[in-house]
Backbone:
């Protein structure tokens, strides 16, 4: 996710709430910084304040739409009039939320947009005896409930979504953590190690030397 909001307290609160939902979140406090991050990172959803300094939120939205990618835009604004909402959607925004708003509603809308930003997937991800319910954030191994941390859940979900393909440590780092993580960290290896221990025997997460991880 990318959160673009010039009120830093609100931006940080949104980011922290979404991180609790197991999203990897970057933050930009003006439109220019947002465009810079969009130029180097691929985001599933951008939570975008409309009235931004330096580069207006409308121009950021246009840039996202013109890029032709799959990024979804949730536009935030204090303008509640119907004409303002219509104008925002006409720019290409996928959803529109008026300030003030409840963080729980924002998170629900982000979850909905995330489902639209990736190819359709079954409500429950299943493979090798593992069942992951992304909505409830529940994991079962052969019917046994497996309690996981947010990062463990995010890594496992990405491996299941790969449908047997190998996912590199770099990809997992990008999708489950934010831009501030040290690219040379061993956090992915440690998280996978903890996942294996919690999921139990027989092991289902395979290491492909020099490539990454997979669940066959």
Residues:
């Amino acid at each position: 996710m990318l959160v673009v909001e010039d009120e830093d307290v609100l931006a940080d609160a949104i980011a922290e709430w979404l991180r609790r939902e197991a999203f990897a979140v970057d933050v930009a406090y003006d439109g220019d910084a947002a465009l810079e991050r969009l130029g180097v990172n691929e985001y599933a959803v951008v939570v975008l304040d409309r009235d931004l300094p330096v580069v207006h939120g409308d121009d950021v939205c246009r840039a996202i739409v013109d890029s032709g990618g799959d990024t979804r835009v949730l536009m935030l604004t204090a303008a509640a009039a119907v004409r303002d909402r219509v104008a925002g959607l006409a720019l290409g925004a996928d959803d529109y939320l008026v300030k003030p708003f409840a963080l729980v509603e924002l998170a629900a809308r982000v979850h909905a947009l995330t489902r639209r930003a990736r190819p359709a997937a079954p409500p429950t991800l299943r493979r090798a005896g593992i069942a992951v319910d992304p909505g409830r954030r529940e994991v079962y191994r052969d019917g046994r409930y497996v309690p996981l941390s947010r990062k463990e859940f995010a890594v496992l979900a990405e491996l299941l979504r790969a449908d047997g393909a190998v996912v590199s440590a770099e990809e997992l780092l990008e999708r489950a953590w934010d831009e501030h993580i040290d690219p040379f960290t061993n956090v992915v290896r440690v998280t996978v190690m903890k996942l294996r221990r919690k999921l139990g025997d027989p092991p289902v997460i395979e290491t492909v030397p020099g490539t990454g991880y997979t669940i066959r």
Observations:
- Residues 8 and 87 are 25 Å apart (CA to CA).
- The first strand starts at residue 2 and ends at 4.
- The chain has a mean pLDDT of 88.
- The chain has two domains: 2-117, 125-215.
